[in-house]
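Protocol step 6 of 9: fold each sequence in the batch and record its structure tokens directly after the sequence line. For illustration, a two-sequence batch is reproduced in full.

Sequence one:
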Amino acid sequence: KNNMDNQETIVIDEWDIKLDNKIVELKTCQETNNLKSCTPCGVFFECELRKKYVIAVYESMNKGAGGGFEF
């Protein structure tokens, strides 16, 4: 039996790092404004930080390959 089958390889790539950074920024913003999520925030739809977070989530899923939301 191949030993590699039993081992999980953890790969940290640039997209995951960017996503982690955006999550920290978002959580910090929420804590600063005493919010548990972005939803009740008055600038929910205009927020550049939230927009960048959404982009980071998408890029972490497609690893920078581009394209649409095709899952």
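Sequence two, same batch, same settings:
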Amino acid sequence: MQTKEEYKDCILFYRLGDFYEMFFEDAIVTSKELEITLTGKNCGLEERAPMCGVPYHASKIYIARLLRLGKKIAICEQVGEISPGGGLTERKVVEIITPGTAVDSEYLDQATNSFLCSLCVTHGKAGFAYIDVTTSEFKATSWNASLMKDYFAKELGRCNPKEILLPLSLKENEVIKNTLEQNPTVSVSYYPDWHFNAENSFKRLTSQFNTVNLNSFGLNEQSSEVVSAGFLLEYLEKTTNTQVPHIKSIKIYHDTEFVIIDESSRKNLEIIYNLRDGSTQYSLLDCVNYTQTAMGNRLIRSWLLSPLCDINRISERHNHVELLYKNNDLLKEIREFLSSILDIERLAGRIAMQRAHAKDLQALRTSIDSWIKVREKINDYDFALINLDDAKFISDLIFKSIHEDPATSITEGRIIKRGWSSELDHYYDLQSNFNKILDDYLEEETD
């Protein structure tokens, strides 16, 4: 009850042995949403406390379902030693998982971004920012607060966020309320206005990007986008309980860059979802999406939701399409290589946040190797090409150091290859040849 008091807006997954247990209102909500049995427990209270639980080893399945319903989950683990004399083992919330901050692959849809967004009004202007911590995509824009009705709905439709953070001063705003009612799947959280502080947000952004100011990003201390963008970074670090070093820049965009599509038109044109059942089937996306990777899938969604206005950028895209359309052999080879590339963006994100295991590293290596083959195929054509040196270095480093079929848990062993660390090899030998080493030692001492 004490821990729950600190995390009122979360469903508390409280570790008890091999189960995560939920109590009181959390248990009632969880049992209903997940269709699991609701039981009870005598806790010395006047009434029996409602209770339900899920197995620890299968918890991610249940957490994923709750996230899709817009719930937040606080994971409370046993952090102290189990006392032989009984009594309560010390417990602590080690992680908060929300729809917009989840990074594990079990919680994510490969085809869509997992955006966390924020809106704040300062000096008559609305600043809107959104970020996908799994891919490092970070964007922001602003508009006159008097145009909130037109712009807020349009921007929500453009990025389709999983979660939105708002100041308490906007909670009773009719435009905000009506727009959010039209987007019931978005998880909404309100925070005291002092969290949305311009000075703190500016410092947080410059610290993140390791810059003195934000001029190179088109921002200054008075920019409306700064407040909402800075708060997103602060929220991410506090919620995930980790650093986000892979977030290295922010892109400021304006309506003039894209064809303006209001939310009503976007729905009626069935660009991403159809009107019949709200799925992607028979939509424009469904008709044109022949991408081979999760990254390509997300990119084409973004392109369809934000059509370009710049004739030069449009022509550049057309030229690339024409090249592959007229060169079927090249297209076939590239598609074959692309099909073996996993989600490098999200793999890199998990590695940067220290949430990856050894299999993720091997997945990154094989994906990089396939990308290098693609890079070599298009080397002679007009593409913006990335230098190969870093990719080859990373691939070679993983190949030399990580076991080909590594364990997913660091406690299982079978992660670091023999020959990479002389110290580790010494301990491997102690483990596998202990009797021989002992016999040799005895013989040496006898002599």
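Proceed to step 7 once all outputs are recorded. Observation for sequence two: The longest strand covers residues 125-132.
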